[in-house]
Write a structure and sequence with these properties.
- The complex is a heterodimer of chains A (35) and B (534).
- Chain A is an all-alpha fold and 35 residues long.
- In chain A, 74% of the residues lie in helices and 0% in strands.
- By secondary structure, chain B is mainly alpha-helical.
- Chain B has a single domain, classed as Amino acid/polyamine transporter I (Up-down Bundle), CATH 1.20.1740.
- In chain B, strands 1-2 form a two-stranded antiparallel ribbon.
- In chain B, α3 packs across α13 and α10 runs antiparallel to α17.
- The C terminus of chain B is likely disordered.
- The chains are: A mainly alpha (35), B mainly alpha (534).
- At the A-B interface, α1 of A face α1, α11 and α14 of B.
Chain lengths: 35, 534
């Protein structure tokens, strides 16, 4: 098994991670911000 | 009676719901499914299901739960009785209690394995077994009660310790028990997970492991099974249909936000699942097992977590420490999940049977210990598989589907929408309404039918069980088919017992005692709000 991460794999990983991190950043910012 | 408890803070309920959702499935089930069904391409149906099924159904459950809490109910029998106002509704609501009851029978036993393996990581016994090439035997001896401390099987000792820990947390109440343990446990879990992820990403050649997990195979998108597995994974990972979110949301204050809280809990769960879970197990296992990974994946969730991972940790520097972190992280996830499974049962005893908290915890403890007896001694005979199928799979999808239709078509879309947005930190855009009304309920109904037809029916009809296979329970030999039917009989008896309790709660007037006051308070509050808006 010598296959390495392809461009497609990298794109899927980075985009998915970014989407989840953005969702968490948005939510926790709203939870903790002072009114 | 003391007034019903509520959460002390928004972050408290968010951590509690996230703690319930984050469990073994995040770290073991998700990566196996993703790797088996198209790698990166799996994320396409997964994210579609997350947006159109997971997030909306979670909002519906939170809304129904907060609605029930206003009338003093934290579980489905009381909530359905209040909503439908028909004599049969409370009995239909018993469906919402079956999942936590059935799961509680075996979950604590599995949770105790994690504590034991964290302990064995510290003492070095696990590493010794790995180096001797005996890990499979070590795991098998432990769960089959052949490893002993003196005359007592060590699995029983760890089970009793874990059981006692759960009971202490539950008996301390919502704020001092559940909220406090989640506020501590969840950040600790995330820190341990991030440390493991950083370690994995710095292993030379890890790109080969990540490739197995993430390189997309677009041809898999044509496979309907992949769409089913992705939807099922989203459903299971978010603790939907288990009655847990209903119960936790019932402890919200009447006007406390649920839109942002639900979304945040879901986001935290996805962080644990995709970023932590997707990076640790499969990439490491691929790196160290190479082309044997397909065989390793066949070990299933437990084999991967308890047998394959210790071997992997045995091959990296400071593996003992990371191995301990791995099991400690899973145990931390197990604690927060276990208490969320027990709380709906405690809530039913307190709210509908009007038991004190101490009596409620005692009653739940006795019931779950009885079920655990069958799970522990019937593990090799298939008792846990049977409880997991009915409690951890079938009832979830069934009750989740019922909830979606209840929200959209019984409570009504307009009332449901208004209730959901009350006190919200941000209002949902109106274009989400058709998703709640049409997409989510029918998506779930299709999932239920397709899943039952492709996987569920084989299990229900015992097609995968050899009719000549023999098993042993407490030294008594049974045909496996007979033992499975005995296990099913036990679950049916439990279901009847729950319905007898419901009948007693309502016929004695205990379940509805104090409801008039609650209804009056709710209606007065609603009128006040309406006047305020006018």
């Amino acid at each position: 098994m010598t296959q390495t991460l392809t461009t497609g794999g990298t794109v899927f990983m980075v985009v998915t991670w970014a989407a989840i991190l953005a969702l968490n950043a948005f939510c926790f910012y709203k939870v903790f911000r002072k009114k | 009676m003391a007034p019903r408890e509520n959460w002390s803070s928004k972050i408290g309920i968010i951590m509690a719901v996230a703690g319930s959702a984050v469990g073994l499935g995040n770290f073991l089930r998700f990566p196996v499914k993703a790797a088996a069904y198209g790698g990166g391409a799996f994320m396409i149906p997964y994210l579609i299901a997350f947006v159109f099924l997971g997030i909306p159904l979670a909002w519906m459950e939170w809304t129904l739960g907060r609605y029930g809490g206003r009338y003093g109910h934290g579980t489905a029998p009381g909530i359905l009785d209040q909503m439908i106002k028909k004599p049969w509704a409370k009995y239909a609501g018993s469906l919402g209690l079956f999942a936590p009851v059935f799961i509680s029978f075996y979950y604590v036993f599995i949770q105790s394995w994690l504590l034991a393996f964290a302990w064995y990581s510290l003492t070095g016994e696990l590493s010794a077994a790995v180096h001797a090439g005996q890990i499979n035997q070590f795991f098998s001896d432990f769960i089959m009660l052949r490893t002993c401390f003196g005359p007592v099987p060590s699995a029983i000792i760890f089970l009793v310790i874990t059981f006692a820990m759960n009971m202490v947390v539950i008996s301390s109440g919502v704020r001092k028990g559940i909220e406090r343990i989640n506020k501590i446990g969840m950040p600790v879990l995330f820190i341990m997970g991030i440390i493991l992820v950083v370690r994995v990403l710095t292993i030379p050649g890890i790109s080969r492991g990540l490739a197995y997990m993430w390189n997309p195979n677009f041809s898999a998108l044509k496979n309907p099974q992949m769409w089913l597995e992705a939807s099922g994974q989203v459903f299971f990972t978010l603790s939907l249909g288990m009655g847990i979110i209903l119960c936790y949301a019932s402890y919200l204050k009447p006007k406390q936000d649920l839109v942002l809280s639900s979304l945040t809990a879901n986001g935290a769960n996805e962080f644990a699942e995709v970023i932590l879970g997707g990076t640790i197990v499969i990439p490491m296992a691929v790196l160290f097992f190479g082309s044997n990974i397909t065989e390793v994946a066949k070990l299933g969730t437990f084999g991967l977590g308890f047998q394959a991972m210790p071997i992997v940790f045995g091959k990296i520097p400071l593996g003992n420490i990371f191995q301990f972190l791995w099991f400690a992280m899973l145990f931390s996830a197990g604690v927060t999940s276990a208490i969320s499974i027990l709380q709906p049962l405690v809530s039913f005893c307190e709210d509908d049977l009007k038991f004190s908290r101490r009596s409620s915890v005692t009653a739940v403890g006795v019931l779950t210990f009885l079920g655990a007896f069958i799970a522990v001694f019937g593990l090799s005979a298939g008792a846990v598989d049977e409880m997991d199928f009915w409690g951890g799979s079938f009832m979830l999808v069934l009750f989740g589907t019922i909830q979606a239709f209840l929200f959209s078509y019984v409570l009504g879309m307009d009332k449901g929408w208004e209730l959901m947005n009350e006190g919200a930190s941000f209002r949902l855009p109106a274009w989400f309404k058709p998703i709640f009304k049409y997409v989510t309920p029918f998506y779930l109904a299709i999932l239920l039918i397709a899943w039952t037809a492709t996987q569920g029916w084989d299990i229900i009809a015992l097609r995968n069980v050899s009719h000549t296979a023999m098993v042993s329970f407490c030294g008594i030999p049974f045909r496996q088919v007979t033992f499975i039917w005995i296990s099913r009989g036990f679950l049916v008896l439990t279901a009847i017992f729950i319905n007898v309790c419901i009948a007693y709660a309502w016929k004695s007037g205990r379940a509805t005692r104090g409801r008039e006051t609650a209804v009056h308070t709710v209606e007065a509050g609603h009128a006040e709000n309406t006047e305020g808006r006018v």
